[in-house]
Amino acid sequence: MKKKHSSILRLEGVQTLLASLLCILGGLLAGFIVLLLIEPSGAWEAITSVLQSFFRYPSAKLQLKYFGQTLTRTAPLIMCSLSVLFAYKVGLFNIGVAGQYVAGACAALYFGLALRMPWWVCMIAAMLSGALLGALSGALKTYRNVNVVISGIMLNWIALYVTNMILSMDGLKNPMSPYTMQLRGVNPGALIPQMGLNTLFGNEKSVTIAIPIAVIMALIVWFMLNKTRFGYELKATGYNYHAARYCGMKENRNIIVTMMLSGALAGMGAALLYLTGIEEWETTISSVPAMGFNGIAVAFLGGLSPIGSILAAYFIQHITMGGGNVDLSVYCAQISSLISSLIIFLCAFVAFFKLAIQNHLRRREEACAAKAVKGGEDA
Amino acid sequence: MFAQGPMGRVQPCLTKEVSALEQYAVEMLHITKRFPGIIANDDITLQLKKGEIHALLGENGAGKSTLMSVLFGLYTPEEGEIRMNGKAVTIRNPNDANDLGIGMVHQHFKLVECFTVLDNIILGVEPTRMGFLQKRQTRARVLAMAEKYGLRVNPDALISDITVGMQQRTEILKMLYRDNDILIFDEPTAVLTPQEIDELMQIMRNLAAEGKSILFISHKLNEIMAVADRCTVLRKGRYIGTVDIRNTTKAELSRMMVGRDVKFAVDKKAAVPGEVVLDVQHMTVASRQHDKDAVRDVSFQVRRGEIVCIAGIDGNGQSELVFGVTGLENVKSGKITMCGKDITRMPIRKRSVGGMSHIPEDRHKHGLVLDYTLEDNMVLQRYFEPQFTNAFGVLRRREIRAYAERLIDQYDVRSGQGAQTLVRSMSGGNQQKAIIAREIDKEPELLVAVQPTRGLDVGAIEYIHQQIVAQRDAGKAVLLVSLELDEVMNVSDRILVMYEGEIVGEFDPKTVSVEELGLYMAGAKKGVDRQ
Predict the structure, then answer these.
(1) Is the ipTM here above 0.95?
(2) What is the CA radius of gyration of chain A?
(3) N or C, where is chain B less crowded by C-beta within 10 Å?
(4) pLDDT, tens digit, for every residue of B442-478?
């Protein structure tokens, strides 16, 4: 009996899942404690409203509508986390995912609003511009040995301000507000088609095929990493750069190509959000959108597996939306962001919990071995 | 001394008299240390007398390192007891060991490269007055110690500028400066020339004569026979016995270590060299460490059916020479030809496909992707072939599995879960076997093998030597780089000695002596006529 139990625990996937769940639990607990410290009376209600998210709405139709919105925002998050984990497999920490996402948003909206292109052209443009930014980081790494974390952070800000500049141009920005024009009004052809999906979600307009596209991309990334020669080479380069070189892989080219693809995934993520018309770009924004950074947390919470990313992205988006439901007469407006960021912060501990599980298993095994030997001697 | 028990195990006869207990500086009694799935130390007893040189002999994986880690407080044994001077002690961490006067010279020195010898000796126990270093008295003390034991060092030289031998003497002085009485030497001769080894042996004898107790970890029987008083042998985590060196022979020690008779000479027929496979002309390779070129104007040829061995002390340009030939490093000038084709600027992949196999010096750095499975490592040089990847770039997993299983079978690579074992979890010997299987099965024209037996046990070494000779007999050209003189003398058909980036002599192993080679390796002689 016991043997079987421990052998399940020994599976890599089970360990990751368990560790991720522990992280979530820890994050919720920490958030709950913060709420208790501020105002004990509303704490339970607040934390449940975060978890319930759209289920709090009274009618089934409204629930579906907000469920649809959650899914729409999940799609770009999946893409950002794919971007992060893809680069991570090659041993690169692509913190530039946020900037690549911004560059993607810029290209998607520029092609949609200024050039009046159809949605798929906009999406390809977004991928290319994200890829360009990623390739820049990769090239700096290979030819000048600049750490991708450093170049990534720098490029994040460059991308943000260039984007603000471009999208503030006449005809792109709404003259009455800091936001860009609505795609729905200017060029409906740039909106990702719904193909009837919206009817499943209470006619929520933002529900499009962006959602299945993100899931398909996750499957493609999984296939590429695990089943193809390309993935074999990329992972070998990531695990051991020197061995990749020794067996004649083009390790430098691999690094640039990886960063390019990683950037393209992030750029595509931005297209999957802004081309649904769910929101516009705020041209006066002075901080890099959190979507890219959340992608990092999601990638780790999902155990660096593309499939795990889908589930983790949904969870993070679910509680982020739920955070908006916290009673603001009791707590200050920042509380919802605080709780979701506490949970996201705890997500970084997946590796830690995994190690703890493995250590626990090892200790138990050692104890078992000692006992078995003793028993043998007695007999 | 010891009695032969069943299953070849020997029970140590512990002397009961109180006076006898006093004569042991350290006693490790019935030490048992278990890890999941393995008993690393199974009831091991080691008794180190005061003022003796005690050798600890065993193959890789015999439990030597675990036993030493127990002595250093890195592991806590499940059973057993450690006594010092007859009193039981508990060693919880290396600091405890240090306080008890136990010191160790590690195989890989722990020295700060950009510090002087003196700074390294006092590092961590610096004498200070009001926060200022007081080096003058220390210097006098260190020089006096060096004089007493015959440890020649220049206290003001930087570690990065001195020879390996002097670095080792610095490590020994470090232990003496800390008033350590129990000195552990972990494979101390691996990096030394024959002359330096002789010198070290003399130093060890001096230390023992002054009352220091020395534990000498080694698997080199010649050295144990030359310097040790007694020898404890471990095999597969078990205590085999302790013998008096005066009453034993090399053959007996090796039988105790391996559990069977070992042939020291490699069986091989005379070489029948054919046409030239590798032709290196005036090759110069820059160094990554310093401005001087690591390989300077080197020319040599390797023919079909012969094993050419590059001998020399570590760091004389052998690694860079191999990097140049295999393409891991660009050559600065010169020309390399393989099977008549100019490969000087050819990418690594093309060289490999063109018939070059490379067993690299550092199997963890270059030879393997440790976090890949065994099967993925087996196809590391061939995964792109149509046999393993289809036209859409998708890997043929089934073919890869079948191929890996054939190699595992044929070359007897042992691992926990067969083709799916993570290579990181395999033993060094089996990791090396995997590389050798992969590189030999490629059917190369030229096999470049760099220290193919490094860190392996006698059984594995024997096997690998047989494989290399078999490749030669199959008409392949073999370029072997080795730091082990035994290997150089036994396996090669022709010896090239490298010193400071140049080939300083060419010899026939049948006519040259080890001492002669040593002189060339140390740079004392150079420039013999080469054909």
Answers:
(1) no
(2) 23
(3) C
(4) 999 999 999 898 767 777 788 889 999 999 999 999 9
Indicate the fold that domain A52-332 takes in CATH.
ABC transporter involved in vitamin B12 uptake, BtuC (1.10.3470)
pLDDT value of position A171? 85
Cβ atoms of residues B372 and B423 within 8 Å: yes
What is the enclosing helix (H) or strand (E) of B100?
A: none
- Size of the A and B interface in Cβ pairs below 8 Å: 76
**In terms of residue numbers, what domain contains B509?**
263-355+445-531
Contact flag A227-B78 (C-beta cutoff 8 Å): no
For A226, name the nearest residue in chain B, comparing CA atoms only.
B395
Out of A227, A247, A249, name the one closest to residue B394 (CB). Answer: A227
Which amino acid would we find at residue B132?
Answer: F
Locate B219 and state its tokens. Answer: 């698997």
Collect all residues of chain A within an 8 Å Cβ-Cβ radius of residue B393: 228-230
B58 and B36 share one domain? yes
> With a threshold of 0.80, does the pTM exceed it?
no
Among residues B422, B443, B464, the one where a domain terminates is B443
**Domain contains B406:** yes
Chain B CB contacts of A230 under 8 Å are: 393
Do B21 and B120 fall into the same domain? no
Together in a domain, B483 and B346: yes
Q: Are residues B97 and B188 in the same domain?
A: yes
> B326 and B454: one domain?
yes
Token pair, residue B354, equals 């063109």
Cβ pair B188, B168 in contact under 8 A: yes
Task: Look at residues B103, B100, B80, B78 and name the one whose alpha carbon lies nearest to residue B91.
Answer: B100
C-alpha B503/C-alpha B299 separation (Å) is 8
Q: Do B395 and A232 touch (CB under 8 A)?
A: yes
B189 and B77 fall within a common domain: yes
Between strands B102-105 and B182-186, the pairing is parallel
pLDDT in tens, B264-317: 567 788 888 889 999 999 999 988 766 678 899 999 999 999 999 999 877 788
Domain co-membership, B478 together with B330: yes
Into how many domains does chain B fold?
4
Query: Using CA atoms, how far apart are residues A27 and A344, in angstroms rounded to an integer?
Result: 7
Provide the total of helices (H) and of strands (E) in chain A, helices listed first. 17, 0
Q: Do B383 and A229 touch (CB under 8 A)?
A: yes
A378 has pLDDT over 60: no
